[in-house]
Design goal:
The protein has about 400 residues and is α/β, with parallel strands linked by helices. The chain has 2 domains: about 1-175, Rossmann fold, CATH 3.40.50.1950; about 185-285 and about 295-400, CoaB-like (Rossmann fold, 3-Layer(aba) Sandwich), CATH 3.40.50.10300. It has 14 helices and 19 strands. The chain has helices at about 15-25, 45-50, 60-65, 70-75, 85-95, 100-110, 120-125, 125-140, 165-175, 210-225, 250-260, 305-310, 325-335, 375-400; strands spanning about 1-5, 30-35, 80-85, 115, 140-145, 145-150, 155-160, 185-190, 195-200, 205, 225-230, 245, 265-270, 275-280, 300, 315-325, 340-345, 360-365, 370-375. Strands 12-11-8-13-16-17-18-19 form an 8-stranded mixed beta sheet, with helices on both faces. It has a 5-stranded parallel beta sheet with strand order 2-1-3-4-5, sandwiched between helices. The chain is globular and about 75 Å long.
């Protein structure tokens, strides 16, 4: 697949070399086209090294135009991806102007165009940007993200560029190109995020899970060519493009959603922090405060992971263990008790595990284990998916 990757001038441009690697490892040829301001954030030397092609930036570069003109580039592209896409580049595309090489290619191409916006959250929510997003979507341009989270400016909100893995997977999925990855053609069901167990119409019991780990696993599996179904509790994250997302609230709903899709799954990964207990009954009206103390009767929620592992034709089943102490010992206990193929142990508590961009984990299986030092959840997810694929195929070949 031929990708024209447009890079415009935002701080997220520092992720562009990683994005190029993610596209190339899936078999794409990448031709980078930068805007003038992109070069303030990332050097053309780095981009040329990772893409293996000279960078194009100037519409009036006679030598480059003689080799492949802007019109040829526009025809060469199977997809034009702009990542990061600034508010300015979105506005320029909306206006239909062609003041530079990138916008000229956008006008001249018949290939699908995808933008991964990245900007300060106030700029993203500005009426002008939202109106531009609306126009672009109506014209059939794909808008990937943005994600929600902490931003380079120190503020938090919607405007973060999606992770390179998620963008690369989305680009392949929107063009229908098959990713030649480790999990090509495999169905992977993943749970992510917390659950909410209602007490009354206004209150619920929940936990600190943000869904970041599970969403990163979903993107990493899609990046390896899997057909991913992501069953998500309530989270504040953008849906990973190209992935089927089923939204649920409670443990019971997550259980039902899982069993609705699990029948033909090859792999099940339970990254969700599912409630173990829920209120025995949901009070119909808001509970009024009366006494100094009150008791809440709780009953067990269904254990989704154990129920999947116990299916007569269970998929390759991977659990997570979130522990504050005796992490490995407790995780190994869960591996055995729930009859899992693999479990990923991670410590949770102050400054680790929940609601962070990084994580530290140890994968455990019957006769072994492998530790993963602290790294971003997307890097960890990539490594975990490779490990899961390796064990999945080992079990498969032992079964046949
Ligand atoms: O979402 P983040 O903020 O990124 O944080 C990531 C994480 C810490 C939530 C994640 O890495 C993680 O550890 N997920 C599992 C959390 C958990 O519920 O662990 P547990 O040890 O209580 O449960 C063990 C396993 O059983 C888990 O795979 C869980 O999904 C599953 N389970 C638990 C209870 C239940 N009723 N049904 C289940 O399927």
């Amino acid at each position: 697949m031929n990708v024209v990757l447009g890079i415009s001038g935002g701080i997220a441009a520092y992720k562009a070399p990683d994005l190029v690697r993610r596209l190339r490892e899936r078999g794409a040829d990448v031709q980078i086209v930068t805007t003038a301001s992109a070069e303030e954030f990332v050097t053309s030397t780095a981009l040329q090294a990772v893409s293996g092609r000279p960078i194009r930036s100037n519409l009036w570069d006679k030598e480059a135009e003689a080799a492949m003109s802007h019109i040829e580039l526009a025809r060469w592209a199977d997809v034009v991806l702009i990542a990061p896409a600034t508010a300015e580049v979105m506005a320029r595309i909306v206006s239909g102007g062609a003041p530079d090489l990138l916008t000229t290619i956008c006008l001249a191409t018949e290939a699908p165009i995808a933008l991964a916006p990245a900007m300060n959250h106030v700029m993203w929510s500005n009426q002008a940007t939202q109106a531009n997003r609306d126009v672009l979507e109506k014209r059939g341009i794909h808008i990937l993200g943005p994600g929600i989270g902490s931003q380079a400016c120190g503020e938090t909100g919607a405007g973060r560029m999606l992770e390179p893995d998620a963008i690369a997977a989305a680009v392949f999925s929107l063009t229908g190109a098959q990713i030649d990855g480790l999990l090509k053609g495999r169905k992977v069901v993943i749970t992510a995020g917390p659950t909410r167990e209602a007490i009354d119409p206004v209150r619920y019991i929940t936990n600190r899970s943000s869904g970041k780990m599970g969403y990163a696993i979903a993107s990493a599996a899609a990046a390896q060519g899997a057909d991913v179904v992501l069953i998500s509790g309530p989270v504040n994250l953008a849906e990973p493009p190209g992935i089927e997302v089923i939204k649920v609230e409670s443990a019971q709903q997550m259980y039902e959603a899982t069993h609705n899709v699990i029948r033909d799954a090859d792999i099940f990964i339970a990254a969700a922090a599912v409630a173990d207990y829920r209120p025995a009954s949901v009070v119909a009206q808001k509970i009024k405060k009366k006494d100094e103390a009150m008791r809440l009767e709780l009953v067990r929620c269904p254990d989704i992971l154990a129920s999947v592992a116990a299916l007569p034709t269970a998929p390759f089943t991977v659990g997570f263990a979130a522990e504050t102490d005796k992490v490995i010992e407790y995780a190994r206990g869960k591996l055995e008790k729930k009859k899992l193929d693999l479990i990923i142990a991670n410590r949770v508590g102050d400054n680790c595990g929940f609601d962070r961009d990084d994580n530290t984990a140890t994968a455990l299986w019957q006769n072994g284990e492998q530790s993963f030092p602290t790294c971003s959840k997307s890097d960890l997810a990539r490594e975990l998916i490779e490990l899961v694929a390796q064990h999945f195929y080992a079990v498969r070949s032992a079964d046949t």
